[in-house]
Write a structure and sequence with these properties.
This protein has 716 residues and is α/β, with parallel strands linked by helices. The chain has three domains: 5-186, 3-Layer(aba) Sandwich (Rossmann fold), CATH 3.40.50; 201-272, no CATH class; 321-712, no CATH class. The chain is 63% helix and 8% strand. The chain has 29 helices and eleven strands. The protein has helices at residues 5-8, 39-47, 91-102, 117-130, 141-146, 153-160, 175-186, 201-218, 224-233, 236-246, 254-269, 274-296, 306-315, 321-364, 369-407, 410-423, 430-439, 441-447, 454-463, 473-484, 492-521, 543-578, 586-600, 605-613, 621-631, 641-650, 655-666, 672-682, 685-712; strands spanning 27-33, 51-55, 62-70, 73-79, 107-113, 134-139, 149-151, 164-166, 297-299, 580-581, 584-585. The strands form three sheets. It has a seven-stranded mixed sheet, sandwiched between helices. Strand 2 (51-55) and strand 3 (62-70) form a beta hairpin. The protein is elongated. The model is unreliable at 1-20, 52-61 and 632-637 (pLDDT under 50).
């Protein structure tokens, strides 16, 4: 659910109204800030588990809001999208601006990064131009202290004219003071005196030319000086939002229209066009930020950023950046492959041991054989296989990947890949959405919202599935260990498996770039746009938080989804394998029909059927393959990678089969969740079908070429 009258008393601008204070159950607090300043940590620390998520009305941008209680008062904390500016250039910036401006929150908390306060003050000053009911949260104060950066919050508060609180949200330091400041501002116990930003004389005169008319039109519902400045700036999105807010079309007001024309002519006569006006506005805000920081921030160590820069000189260099990135990825894969075998075998022995006990119970109760087949051989055995094969590698891979994320390395990956996406005529932010796809392709598709250009957003959406998600990694890991690493002897097998898995991921990135270039030159023609990418400081990882996030948010989530889909899949496959038509099972009939296509692509009919039945979730493709083979006569319990290899080889698999299955796993239609997400994000069945067809066609072509080339060369 999103923010609604029923949930918070707020009906966002998408419905054309402001907050209904008569039905509001608490004080509305907006939580604003740049990306990477710890805003989400502040939000989570204040609201705990009392949170809700959804979409902003009329937008495909996620919202999160939560509740907390302080001094017997209820507060509703709205986590508005992270943004660098309120001069809206994207849907996120537009929502952040409109919520602060038109939803009239009782207070706005602007979270800043203590280690780069000067840059963050840009958003603070823009917010102060809209409202004085602001509390500045200087977060990550512990990192600032470690770098010997001293921030005089009292002096900063005096300069800004609003409360300034130093916090470290991770350890909950300063949060009591923050909630107290919010309480005082929201209830009016503290009267803020926000800094008034003044521009050069020409701009100030232009503002005053239209300000009386703006005040008349808005009726004092909104800061007339700020609206005057934005109208001079020609902000079309603001005008649209303002029209919705006021309930009429502002340009229809002849007096305001004439005054605005005079003011713009006055600016033109003084040598200030629309672009120069915005430049002067931004330059003035930046100069004030610099002035305030010179007064309130001192550096005990002028070289506090030297360590980060030295590290970045290697990790983001043209020579070492890509090799280091691939090496780190290979190390993660090696640890996952080498570490998963033994726990996987132990888990399999445990779960299949339980199957034996359940079978004994069914026999003792004289349960009909078909019921035992459906529930135990079909459903339970599939679940046991999914858990024993998927849990160990995920429990290793996800914490390691989350560690890189927590360290601040993933934005460096995007930086290293930016030039490649530029050459592919795609947006540099696509590198970030691609990294999100490693966790979940549906999340990667949602992440494409950060790309402003609709054309480039579609390219990123269509190609996101070319990077393997959580659900495909266990299949890729298992097959690389069996059919590629298995060809090497001893410890070198893990190394070969690691290199092959790294090559698969690298292939996925390469195909992403190639397909992006093809799309940008054909059905989605256009020039790439530019963007600013912030490289956050390196941070000490929180091991406990990493474990919780990776195990609960990723491992258990993915495993739970796989199990939920695998159980009915096992049931269906058992039925298909045991219901016979003309003496042949439905499963065999279907696989036989698909077998010519499978053979053409270096696979077989059962494998193609597994990919089709695995549409709900990629996690169950390999379990369906195994279940299909077992149901067709090879009733062998899985007890480790060697046993899995035996099942596959006994059903005709060769190294070529393994390679083709890995390729098709990398390049085939997105799962149902991702397709549904694409449909919601694009609001178009056409682009959803294209997102289905493009990776599938790429997978068919790649497997066809590899399989038939191997046969032609006598390698298969």
């Amino acid at each position: 659910m999103g923010l609604t009258n029923q949930s918070t008393g707020s009906s966002l601008l998408g419905n054309g109204t402001i907050i209904d204070r008569t039905s509001c159950s608490g004080f509305i607090i907006a939580l604003s800030g740049n990306p990477n300043v710890g805003k989400s940590t502040v939000f989570n620390s204040l609201t705990g588990l009392n949170q809700h998520t959804g979409n902003w009305p009329g937008k495909t941008v996620a919202t999160c809001y939560g509740k907390y209680k302080y001094k017997n008062k209820n507060f509703i904390l709205v986590d508005i999208p992270g943004t660098y500016s309120l001069m809206a250039n994207s849907a996120e910036e537009e929502i952040a601006r409109d919520f602060v401006c038109f939803e009239n929150p009782d207070a706005t908390v602007v979270v800043t990064d203590a280690t780069c306060l000067e840059r963050n003050l840009n958003l603070v000053l823009q917010t102060l131009e809209i409202t004085g009911k602001v509390v500045v949260c200087v977060n990550l104060i512990d990192e600032a202290e470690r770098k010997k950066i001293h921030i005089d919050c009292k002096k900063l508060s005096d300069r800004l004219g609003v409360p300034v609180i130093a916090t470290n949200a991770r350890s909950k330091r300063g949060l009591d003071e923050l909630t107290d400041a919010v309480y005082n501002i929201a209830l009016g116990f503290v009267r803020a005196n926000p800094l008034q930003i003044t521009y050069d004389e020409t701009i100030e005169q232009a503002i005053e030319l239209i300000r009386p008319a703006v005040r008349e039109v808005t009726g004092g519902k909104i800061n007339d000086r700020w609206v005057s400045l934005r109208l001079l700036d020609g902000d079309a999105s603001l005008l649209e939002s303002l029209n919705k807010f006021l309930g009429f079309n502002i340009p229809d007001n002849s007096i305001l229209r004439q005054d605005l024309k005079k003011a713009r002519q006055f600016l033109e006569q003084n040598g200030i066009n629309a672009d120069q006006l915005r430049d002067r506005i931004v330059s003035r805000i930046i100069s004030i930020s610099e002035e305030i920081c010179r007064d309130a921030v001192s550096f005990g160590n002028k070289q506090y950023n030297d360590t980060d820069r030295k590290i970045d000189s290697i990790l983001t260099s043209k020579i070492f950046g890509i090799p280091v990135m691939l090496a780190l990825l290979a190390v993660i894969f090696w640890l996952t492959i080498a570490g998963a075998n033994y726990p996987s075998e132990l888990l399999a022995n445990l779960l299949f041991g339980i199957e034996d006990r359940l079978t004994d119970i069914f026999i003792s109760l004289n349960v009909p054989g078909w019921i035992h087949g459906v529930l135990i051989t079909g459903t339970y055995r599939t679940l046991a296989w999914v858990v024993s094969v998927m849990l160990p590698p995920m429990a290793i891979f996800f914490p390691l990947f989350t560690l890189l994320e927590d360290l601040g390395y993933l934005p460096r990956v995007a930086f290293n890949l930016d030039n490649f996406f530029k050459k592919a005529c795609a947006h540099g932010k696509q590198a970030l959405t691609m990294c999100m796809g490693f966790g979940c392709n549906a999340a990667g598709v949602i992440g494409c919202r950060i790309i402003d250009s609709p054309r480039e957003r579609l390219i990123a959406t269509i190609t996101n599935t070319f990077v393997p998600c959580n659900g495909r990694f266990p299949t890729l890991i298992a097959l690389s260990a069996i059919f590629i690493g298995g060809m090497a002897n001893g410890a070198s097998g893990s190394l070969v498996s690691t290199l092959s898995l790294t090559a698969v991921v690298l292939l996925g990135i390469t195909i992403t770039l190639v397909v992006s270039k093809i799309l940008s030159k054909t059905i989605l023609k256009g020039l790439p746009s530019s963007f600013a990418l912030e490289l956050p400081p390196y941070r000490k990882p929180q091991v406990g938080r990493i474990i919780v996030r990776s195990i609960l948010d990723r491992t258990i989530f993915v495993l739970g989804r796989a199990a939920a889909v695998a159980a009915p899949a096992g049931f269906i496959i058992w039925i298909m394998a045991n219901v016979r038509v003309g003496g042949v099972s439905i499963l065999a009939h279907t696989a036989g029909f698909l077998d010519p296509l499978g053979k053409l692509l270096g696979m077989d009919g059962y494998i193609i059927l597994a990919f089709i039945l695995g549409l709900p979730a990629n996690e169950i493709v390999l379990p369906i393959i195994i279940m299909s083979y077992m149901a067709s006569g090879s009733l062998i319990e899985y007890s480790g990678m060697e046993q899995l290899r035996h099942i596959l080889v006994s059903n005709g698999w060769t190294p070529l089969t393994g390679i083709c299955v890995m390729l098709f796993s990398l390049m085939h239609f997105p799962c149902a969740t991702t397709l549904w997400t694409i449909r919601k994000e694009t609001r178009s069945m056409k682009w959803t079908l294209i997102s289905f067809a493009v990776p599938t066609a790429a997978g068919i072509i790649a497997c066809f070429i590899i399989a038939n080339a191997a046969r032609f060369l006598g390698l298969a």
